[in-house]
């Protein structure tokens, strides 16, 4: 007689095996969502750096800024942002990058409310300084989070490409959005728009990013190094932004520059002897790291100068409104976004970062060189649209540059390397605007004295500035060719 198996003894049907790809899928999705949050936070901060420029005339009219005082709505932000980046990056390594990111987003969002609510020039300038401080805390650790979150070379390349997309397009989109908000709702909304984005980013960080305890402040926070680099960086940016008023060779400029040089030299000396340096000098011995930072300094000086000057040319010479100016720059944003978001990572994986960087900089150089013969009038489709298309090559250059700049980062100092990369970016932007604006003013004054009307005189100034910017790009390409090394995908520079 056969025995009927009981439920307890009957073998259960085999469970389907879970492959490694299926097991890794939830973690991969979580990383992608976390990347989206980081990109949104970065986009908000980058937009704020450019969105304000279109609103400056409306801010001046409403709050009663003097012409010289108005520049401090931009300068206060740049000084705080550029001065605190390196310290903020190292603080992320020690105290935890997630905590520093949350603190930065909180400060930035709260300061945005104060900016939009400002009723006096002093209130707006103070709030902009606080915004810059919050932006520095958030920005300095973002790349460090990405390079530790995405360890696979292919995934990391795509993540850096997406992050670079927000940086490359955010500055241009800020012009578009700034024009629409200023003309439609008022200048206050170029700041209020940050509030819902910042709140959503904070929620996303809390829910999606793992809490990292950091190395611990007891590991050795280099307080003296932090004071030196923050003071030196802030004084460097301040020296640059006041050049237009004081002049390059004035006693004031030379004295400030000497003070900044002494502070930064003291910082480097401190890093060579400190037990726990703020910026380990071994990172600067990686050729692709210091080379990429130098290329970035030159490239951003040219590109940020282009962004500001071409917008001024369209409004002051061609009579475009704020909205028309933003829309005229939209083709560059679209091309930059398309290249940096999808195309760049695939090309970098196949040809390497150095090759893709050069491939992106060459069309930018061609477009920039065309502006050296910029006329005061003429149809947009013929005179300006081709330039917008060519500078779209920046969408290839920036992701490659970002990968090279982070190539020497380790898990324990990724924040410091990220802070350094963002610092050179800010100093390049400040230097580009100060230098090119000075050339515009000097040349335009000379042409007016010779009898030219306002529009042709300004155009002459813009041509000279774009000639200088072309020289900066030539220097960037030469540096990339001579200094940067081609590194196979997945290897460090």
Automatic annotation (TrEMBL):
It is a multi-pass membrane protein. It comes from the Bacteria. PROSITE patterns: MFS. Gene3D superfamilies: MFS general substrate transporter like domains, Multidrug resistance protein D. Residues 34-488 form the Major facilitator superfamily (MFS) profile domain. The chain crosses the membrane at residues 33-58, 70-88, 100-123, 129-150, 162-181, 187-209, 221-241, 247-269, 290-314, 326-348, 355-372, 384-406, 427-444, 464-484. Residues 1-23 are annotated as: Disordered. Keywords: Cell membrane, Membrane, Transmembrane, Transmembrane helix, Transport. PANTHER family: BLR6921 PROTEIN, MAJOR FACILITATOR SUPERFAMILY MULTIDRUG TRANSPORTER MFSC. This is MFS transporter. The lineage of its organism: Bacteria, Bacillati, Actinomycetota, Actinomycetes, Streptosporangiales.
């Amino acid at each position: 007689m056969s025995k009927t198996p009981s439920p307890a003894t009957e073998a259960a049907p085999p469970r389907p095996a879970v492959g490694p790809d299926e097991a890794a899928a939830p973690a991969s999705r979580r990383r992608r969502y976390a990347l989206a949050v980081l990109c949104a936070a970065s986009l908000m901060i980058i937009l704020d750096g450019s969105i304000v420029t279109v609103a400056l005339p409306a801010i001046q009219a409403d709050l009663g800024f003097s012409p010289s005082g108005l520049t401090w709505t931009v300068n206060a932000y740049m000084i705080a942002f550029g001065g605190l980046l390196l310290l903020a990056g190292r603080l992320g390594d020690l105290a935890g990058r997630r905590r520093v990111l949350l603190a930065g987003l909180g400060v930035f969002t709260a300061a945005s409310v104060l900016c939009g609510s400002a009723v006096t020039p002093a209130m707006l300038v103070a709030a902009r300084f606080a915004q810059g401080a919050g932006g520095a805390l958030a920005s300095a650790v973002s790349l460090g989070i990405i390079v530790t979150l995405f360890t696979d070379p292919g995934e990391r390349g795509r993540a850096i490409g997406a992050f670079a997309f927000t940086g490359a397009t955010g500055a241009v989109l800020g012009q578009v959005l700034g024009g629409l908000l200023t003309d439609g709702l008022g200048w206050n909304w170029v700041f209020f728009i940050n509030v819902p984005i910042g709140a959503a980013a904070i929620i996303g960080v809390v829910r999606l990013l793992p809490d990292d305890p950091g190395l611990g402040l007891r590991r050795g926070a280099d307080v003296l190094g932090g004071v030196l680099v923050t003071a030196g960086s802030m004084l460097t940016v301040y020296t640059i932004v006041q050049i237009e008023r004081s002049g390059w060779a004035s006693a004031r400029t030379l004295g400030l520059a000497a003070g900044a040089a002494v502070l930064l030299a003291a910082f480097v000396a401190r890093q060579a002897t400190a037990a726990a340096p703020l910026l380990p000098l071994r990172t600067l011995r990686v050729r692709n790291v210091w080379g990429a930072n130098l290329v970035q300094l030159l490239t951003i000086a040219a590109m940020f100068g282009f962004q500001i000057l071409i917008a001024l040319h369209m409004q002051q010479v061609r009579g475009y409104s704020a909205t028309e100016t933003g829309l005229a720059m939209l083709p560059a944003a679209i091309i930059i976004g398309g290249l940096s978001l999808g195309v760049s990572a695939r090309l970098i994986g196949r040809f390497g970062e150095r090759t893709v960087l050069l491939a992106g900089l060459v069309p930018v150089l061609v477009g920039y060189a065309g502006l050296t013969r910029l006329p005061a009038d003429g149809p947009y489709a013929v005179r300006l649209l081709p330039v917008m298309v060519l500078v779209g090559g920046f969408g290839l250059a920036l992701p490659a540059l970002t990968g090279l700049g982070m190539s020497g980062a380790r898990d324990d100092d990724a924040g410091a390397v990220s802070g350094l990369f963002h610092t050179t970016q800010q100093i390049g932007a400040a230097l580009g605007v100060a230098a090119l604006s000075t050339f515009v003013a000097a040349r335009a004054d000379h042409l007016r004295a010779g009898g030219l009307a306002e529009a042709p005189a300004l155009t002459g100034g813009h041509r000279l500035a774009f000639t200088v910017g072309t020289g900066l790009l030539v220097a960037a390409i030469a540096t990339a060719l001579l200094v940067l090394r081609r590194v196979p995908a997945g290897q460090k520079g």
